[in-house]
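C-alpha coordinates please, single chain.
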Amino acid sequence: MKTLRFGIEIETVGAGREKLANAIQSVVGGRISANYLGMQVTDAQGRAWKVVPDGSLSGSTYSGEIVSPILTYQDLDALQSVVRAVREVGARADATCGIHIHVDGSRFDAKAVTNLVKMVHKQERLLETALGVSAARLNRFCKPIDGAFLQRLEARRPRTLQDVNEAWYGRRNPTPARYDSSRYHGLNLNSLFFRGTIEFRYFNGSVHAGEVKSYVQLVLALAARALASKAASSKRRDFNPATAKYDFRVFLLHLGLIGEEFKTARLHLLKKLEGSAAWKGPRRDRRGSGGDEDGSPGNEGPQGAQGGTGPTQGGAPAEAMAAA
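Here you go.
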Protein backbone atom coordinates (compact mmCIF):
# COMPACT_ATOMS: atom_id res chain seq x y z
CA MET A 1 0.00 0.00 0.00
CA LYS A 2 2.89 2.35 0.60
CA THR A 3 3.95 2.19 -3.04
CA LEU A 4 0.57 3.29 -4.45
CA ARG A 5 0.09 6.84 -5.65
CA PHE A 6 -3.09 8.72 -4.79
CA GLY A 7 -4.85 12.05 -4.95
CA ILE A 8 -7.51 13.58 -2.73
CA GLU A 9 -10.33 16.10 -3.10
CA ILE A 10 -11.48 17.77 0.13
CA GLU A 11 -14.66 19.87 0.02
CA THR A 12 -14.91 22.66 2.59
CA VAL A 13 -17.10 25.59 3.58
CA GLY A 14 -16.40 28.59 5.84
CA ALA A 15 -13.38 30.03 4.02
CA GLY A 16 -12.98 31.54 0.57
CA ARG A 17 -10.74 30.09 -2.10
CA GLU A 18 -8.05 32.74 -1.76
CA LYS A 19 -7.79 32.14 1.97
CA LEU A 20 -7.60 28.39 1.38
CA ALA A 21 -4.84 28.86 -1.20
CA ASN A 22 -2.82 31.04 1.19
CA ALA A 23 -3.17 28.39 3.89
CA ILE A 24 -1.95 25.67 1.55
CA GLN A 25 1.00 27.81 0.45
CA SER A 26 1.98 28.31 4.09
CA VAL A 27 2.64 24.55 4.24
CA VAL A 28 3.91 23.57 0.78
CA GLY A 29 5.58 26.83 -0.28
CA GLY A 30 5.73 27.83 -3.91
CA ARG A 31 3.58 30.43 -5.63
CA ILE A 32 -0.12 31.18 -6.01
CA SER A 33 -1.85 31.88 -9.30
CA ALA A 34 -5.49 32.35 -10.27
CA ASN A 35 -7.67 31.80 -13.31
CA TYR A 36 -11.35 31.37 -14.11
CA LEU A 37 -11.23 27.85 -12.67
CA GLY A 38 -10.06 28.99 -9.24
CA MET A 39 -6.75 29.23 -7.39
CA GLN A 40 -3.61 27.16 -7.80
CA VAL A 41 -0.62 26.70 -5.51
CA THR A 42 2.43 25.40 -7.34
CA ASP A 43 4.53 23.94 -4.57
CA ALA A 44 8.30 23.79 -4.21
CA GLN A 45 8.36 20.50 -6.15
CA GLY A 46 6.38 21.97 -9.05
CA ARG A 47 3.17 20.14 -8.13
CA ALA A 48 -0.18 21.89 -8.40
CA TRP A 49 -2.58 22.10 -5.45
CA LYS A 50 -5.87 23.51 -6.71
CA VAL A 51 -8.75 25.22 -4.96
CA VAL A 52 -11.81 25.16 -7.20
CA PRO A 53 -15.47 26.12 -6.83
CA ASP A 54 -18.12 23.45 -6.37
CA GLY A 55 -21.77 24.33 -6.87
CA SER A 56 -22.96 21.55 -4.56
CA LEU A 57 -21.39 23.22 -1.49
CA SER A 58 -23.44 25.40 0.85
CA GLY A 59 -20.87 28.12 1.43
CA SER A 60 -21.17 29.98 -1.90
CA THR A 61 -18.03 32.12 -2.24
CA TYR A 62 -16.96 30.99 1.24
CA SER A 63 -16.28 27.46 0.09
CA GLY A 64 -13.86 25.52 -2.04
CA GLU A 65 -12.75 22.08 -3.09
CA ILE A 66 -9.08 21.39 -2.42
CA VAL A 67 -7.64 19.14 -5.13
CA SER A 68 -4.23 17.70 -4.35
CA PRO A 69 -1.55 16.81 -6.89
CA ILE A 70 -0.47 13.20 -7.25
CA LEU A 71 0.81 12.19 -3.82
CA THR A 72 2.73 9.28 -2.33
CA TYR A 73 2.51 7.66 1.09
CA GLN A 74 5.46 9.77 2.17
CA ASP A 75 3.33 12.90 1.57
CA LEU A 76 0.80 12.01 4.26
CA ASP A 77 2.42 14.25 6.87
CA ALA A 78 2.33 17.21 4.47
CA LEU A 79 -1.30 16.46 3.63
CA GLN A 80 -2.20 16.48 7.31
CA SER A 81 -0.42 19.81 7.71
CA VAL A 82 -2.44 21.23 4.81
CA VAL A 83 -5.67 20.07 6.46
CA ARG A 84 -4.68 21.68 9.76
CA ALA A 85 -3.72 24.92 7.99
CA VAL A 86 -7.04 25.30 6.19
CA ARG A 87 -8.93 24.52 9.39
CA GLU A 88 -7.02 27.28 11.16
CA VAL A 89 -8.24 29.85 8.62
CA GLY A 90 -11.88 28.89 9.13
CA ALA A 91 -12.49 25.97 6.79
CA ARG A 92 -14.96 23.39 8.05
CA ALA A 93 -17.13 20.60 6.73
CA ASP A 94 -20.91 20.43 6.73
CA ALA A 95 -23.46 18.01 5.32
CA THR A 96 -22.84 19.24 1.77
CA CYS A 97 -19.13 18.33 1.92
CA GLY A 98 -17.42 15.10 1.01
CA ILE A 99 -13.95 13.69 0.47
CA HIS A 100 -12.99 11.78 -2.67
CA ILE A 101 -9.80 9.72 -2.85
CA HIS A 102 -8.30 8.57 -6.15
CA VAL A 103 -5.86 5.67 -6.44
CA ASP A 104 -3.58 5.31 -9.45
CA GLY A 105 -5.19 2.71 -11.69
CA SER A 106 -2.13 1.90 -13.78
CA ARG A 107 -1.37 -1.26 -11.79
CA PHE A 108 -4.92 -2.59 -11.99
CA ASP A 109 -5.79 -5.26 -14.54
CA ALA A 110 -9.22 -6.85 -14.91
CA LYS A 111 -8.60 -9.32 -12.08
CA ALA A 112 -7.51 -6.65 -9.61
CA VAL A 113 -10.46 -4.37 -10.44
CA THR A 114 -12.86 -7.31 -10.11
CA ASN A 115 -11.30 -8.24 -6.76
CA LEU A 116 -11.74 -4.68 -5.52
CA VAL A 117 -15.38 -4.48 -6.59
CA LYS A 118 -16.18 -7.79 -4.89
CA MET A 119 -14.30 -6.91 -1.70
CA VAL A 120 -16.07 -3.59 -1.35
CA HIS A 121 -19.49 -5.07 -2.16
CA LYS A 122 -18.97 -7.79 0.46
CA GLN A 123 -18.27 -5.25 3.22
CA GLU A 124 -20.21 -2.25 1.89
CA ARG A 125 -22.85 -2.05 4.64
CA LEU A 126 -20.09 -2.14 7.24
CA LEU A 127 -18.04 0.47 5.36
CA GLU A 128 -20.99 2.83 4.99
CA THR A 129 -21.87 2.52 8.68
CA ALA A 130 -18.29 2.92 9.90
CA LEU A 131 -17.87 6.04 7.76
CA GLY A 132 -21.23 7.48 8.80
CA VAL A 133 -22.41 8.03 5.24
CA SER A 134 -25.76 9.83 5.32
CA ALA A 135 -28.83 8.47 3.53
CA ALA A 136 -28.89 11.60 1.37
CA ARG A 137 -25.35 11.03 0.11
CA LEU A 138 -25.99 7.31 -0.41
CA ASN A 139 -29.00 8.18 -2.54
CA ARG A 140 -27.22 10.75 -4.68
CA PHE A 141 -23.45 11.22 -4.61
CA CYS A 142 -22.06 7.88 -3.39
CA LYS A 143 -24.54 5.18 -4.25
CA PRO A 144 -23.79 1.57 -3.31
CA ILE A 145 -22.34 -0.77 -5.92
CA ASP A 146 -24.99 -1.34 -8.56
CA GLY A 147 -26.43 -4.84 -8.46
CA ALA A 148 -26.84 -5.06 -12.22
CA PHE A 149 -23.19 -4.08 -12.71
CA LEU A 150 -22.08 -6.78 -10.27
CA GLN A 151 -24.18 -9.39 -12.04
CA ARG A 152 -22.68 -8.44 -15.40
CA LEU A 153 -19.19 -8.50 -13.92
CA GLU A 154 -19.60 -11.96 -12.43
CA ALA A 155 -21.27 -13.33 -15.56
CA ARG A 156 -18.48 -12.07 -17.84
CA ARG A 157 -15.54 -13.14 -15.65
CA PRO A 158 -13.59 -10.31 -17.30
CA ARG A 159 -10.16 -10.95 -18.74
CA THR A 160 -9.55 -7.41 -19.95
CA LEU A 161 -10.35 -3.92 -18.75
CA GLN A 162 -12.57 -3.60 -21.81
CA ASP A 163 -14.69 -6.41 -20.35
CA VAL A 164 -14.92 -4.45 -17.08
CA ASN A 165 -15.82 -1.32 -19.06
CA GLU A 166 -18.73 -3.10 -20.74
CA ALA A 167 -19.94 -4.47 -17.40
CA TRP A 168 -19.75 -1.02 -15.77
CA TYR A 169 -21.65 0.88 -18.46
CA GLY A 170 -23.84 -1.99 -19.68
CA ARG A 171 -22.39 -1.46 -23.15
CA ARG A 172 -19.04 -0.80 -24.74
CA ASN A 173 -18.04 2.79 -23.98
CA PRO A 174 -14.73 3.71 -25.64
CA THR A 175 -15.10 7.45 -24.88
CA PRO A 176 -16.39 7.85 -21.31
CA ALA A 177 -17.35 11.36 -20.23
CA ARG A 178 -16.06 12.97 -17.07
CA TYR A 179 -19.57 13.61 -15.74
CA ASP A 180 -21.12 10.32 -16.78
CA SER A 181 -23.97 9.57 -14.38
CA SER A 182 -22.30 6.32 -13.31
CA ARG A 183 -19.66 8.34 -11.44
CA TYR A 184 -21.95 8.91 -8.47
CA HIS A 185 -21.16 5.63 -6.73
CA GLY A 186 -19.08 5.10 -3.61
CA LEU A 187 -16.69 3.08 -5.76
CA ASN A 188 -16.44 4.98 -9.06
CA LEU A 189 -14.97 3.13 -12.04
CA ASN A 190 -15.98 5.82 -14.52
CA SER A 191 -12.92 7.63 -13.22
CA LEU A 192 -10.76 4.62 -14.17
CA PHE A 193 -11.93 4.69 -17.75
CA PHE A 194 -11.94 8.50 -18.05
CA ARG A 195 -8.71 9.48 -16.27
CA GLY A 196 -6.99 6.31 -15.12
CA THR A 197 -7.79 6.47 -11.40
CA ILE A 198 -10.14 4.50 -9.18
CA GLU A 199 -12.22 6.89 -7.08
CA PHE A 200 -13.61 6.24 -3.60
CA ARG A 201 -16.44 8.65 -2.73
CA TYR A 202 -17.75 7.20 0.55
CA PHE A 203 -16.19 9.75 2.88
CA ASN A 204 -17.98 12.60 4.62
CA GLY A 205 -16.28 15.97 4.59
CA SER A 206 -13.70 16.53 7.32
CA VAL A 207 -10.98 18.98 8.28
CA HIS A 208 -9.64 16.66 10.98
CA ALA A 209 -6.13 15.69 9.91
CA GLY A 210 -6.23 12.32 11.65
CA GLU A 211 -9.51 11.37 10.01
CA VAL A 212 -8.27 12.37 6.57
CA LYS A 213 -5.11 10.29 7.01
CA SER A 214 -7.14 7.28 8.18
CA TYR A 215 -9.35 7.53 5.08
CA VAL A 216 -6.31 7.52 2.79
CA GLN A 217 -4.80 4.56 4.62
CA LEU A 218 -8.07 2.62 4.33
CA VAL A 219 -8.30 3.23 0.58
CA LEU A 220 -4.66 2.31 -0.04
CA ALA A 221 -5.04 -0.86 2.04
CA LEU A 222 -8.16 -1.87 0.07
CA ALA A 223 -6.39 -1.24 -3.23
CA ALA A 224 -3.28 -3.14 -2.17
CA ARG A 225 -5.34 -6.10 -1.01
CA ALA A 226 -7.20 -6.23 -4.33
CA LEU A 227 -3.91 -6.17 -6.23
CA ALA A 228 -2.41 -8.96 -4.11
CA SER A 229 -5.42 -11.31 -3.99
CA LYS A 230 -5.83 -14.23 -6.36
CA ALA A 231 -9.62 -14.00 -6.10
CA ALA A 232 -12.37 -12.46 -3.98
CA SER A 233 -15.95 -13.20 -2.99
CA SER A 234 -18.76 -10.69 -3.48
CA LYS A 235 -21.27 -12.35 -1.13
CA ARG A 236 -22.43 -9.75 1.35
CA ARG A 237 -21.50 -10.21 4.97
CA ASP A 238 -24.41 -10.27 7.39
CA PHE A 239 -24.56 -6.88 9.10
CA ASN A 240 -25.16 -6.77 12.84
CA PRO A 241 -25.00 -3.29 14.41
CA ALA A 242 -24.33 -4.79 17.84
CA THR A 243 -21.06 -6.38 16.68
CA ALA A 244 -20.14 -3.89 13.95
CA LYS A 245 -17.11 -2.48 15.76
CA TYR A 246 -15.59 -5.93 16.20
CA ASP A 247 -16.48 -7.00 12.66
CA PHE A 248 -14.94 -3.92 11.08
CA ARG A 249 -11.79 -4.26 13.19
CA VAL A 250 -11.47 -7.82 11.86
CA PHE A 251 -11.70 -6.43 8.34
CA LEU A 252 -9.09 -3.74 9.04
CA LEU A 253 -6.67 -6.34 10.39
CA HIS A 254 -7.31 -8.47 7.31
CA LEU A 255 -6.31 -5.46 5.19
CA GLY A 256 -3.04 -5.14 7.10
CA LEU A 257 -3.97 -2.10 9.22
CA ILE A 258 -2.51 -3.73 12.29
CA GLY A 259 -0.01 -2.68 14.92
CA GLU A 260 1.01 0.62 16.47
CA GLU A 261 1.55 2.34 13.11
CA PHE A 262 -2.17 2.12 12.29
CA LYS A 263 -3.59 2.48 15.80
CA THR A 264 -4.85 6.02 15.15
CA ALA A 265 -6.41 4.93 11.87
CA ARG A 266 -8.28 2.13 13.67
CA LEU A 267 -9.52 4.55 16.32
CA HIS A 268 -10.99 6.92 13.73
CA LEU A 269 -12.43 4.18 11.55
CA LEU A 270 -14.07 2.35 14.47
CA LYS A 271 -15.37 5.26 16.53
CA LYS A 272 -18.83 5.49 14.92
CA LEU A 273 -19.62 1.79 15.42
CA GLU A 274 -21.42 0.02 18.24
CA GLY A 275 -20.13 -2.81 20.38
CA SER A 276 -16.61 -3.72 21.45
CA ALA A 277 -13.61 -3.72 19.14
CA ALA A 278 -12.05 -6.59 21.09
CA TRP A 279 -15.02 -8.86 21.81
CA LYS A 280 -17.74 -10.09 19.45
CA GLY A 281 -19.90 -11.72 22.11
CA PRO A 282 -20.56 -11.00 25.82
CA ARG A 283 -17.50 -10.58 28.01
CA ARG A 284 -16.50 -13.74 29.84
CA ASP A 285 -14.38 -12.01 32.45
CA ARG A 286 -15.19 -8.91 34.44
CA ARG A 287 -11.75 -7.85 35.58
CA GLY A 288 -10.87 -5.15 33.07
CA SER A 289 -11.96 -2.92 30.26
CA GLY A 290 -11.34 -5.44 27.48
CA GLY A 291 -8.70 -3.28 25.89
CA ASP A 292 -8.54 0.05 24.17
CA GLU A 293 -11.20 1.21 21.73
CA ASP A 294 -9.17 0.03 18.75
CA GLY A 295 -8.85 -3.44 20.25
CA SER A 296 -5.37 -3.04 21.70
CA PRO A 297 -4.89 -5.16 24.82
CA GLY A 298 -6.03 -3.80 28.14
CA ASN A 299 -4.73 -4.61 31.62
CA GLU A 300 -6.86 -7.60 32.45
CA GLY A 301 -4.13 -10.19 32.08
CA PRO A 302 -4.05 -13.47 30.17
CA GLN A 303 -7.83 -13.71 29.77
CA GLY A 304 -8.03 -10.34 28.01
CA ALA A 305 -8.84 -9.37 24.49
CA GLN A 306 -5.52 -10.40 23.00
CA GLY A 307 -4.31 -12.70 25.72
CA GLY A 308 -6.99 -15.39 25.63
CA THR A 309 -6.14 -19.04 25.68
CA GLY A 310 -7.73 -19.92 22.36
CA PRO A 311 -10.45 -19.28 19.83
CA THR A 312 -13.19 -19.87 22.41
CA GLN A 313 -12.33 -16.74 24.37
CA GLY A 314 -15.42 -14.76 23.46
CA GLY A 315 -14.34 -14.09 19.89
CA ALA A 316 -10.76 -12.98 20.51
CA PRO A 317 -8.65 -11.42 17.75
CA ALA A 318 -6.67 -14.64 17.15
CA GLU A 319 -9.93 -16.02 15.79
CA ALA A 320 -10.63 -12.73 14.04
CA MET A 321 -7.49 -12.89 11.96
CA ALA A 322 -8.56 -16.23 10.51
CA ALA A 323 -12.20 -15.23 10.06
CA ALA A 324 -11.54 -12.44 7.57
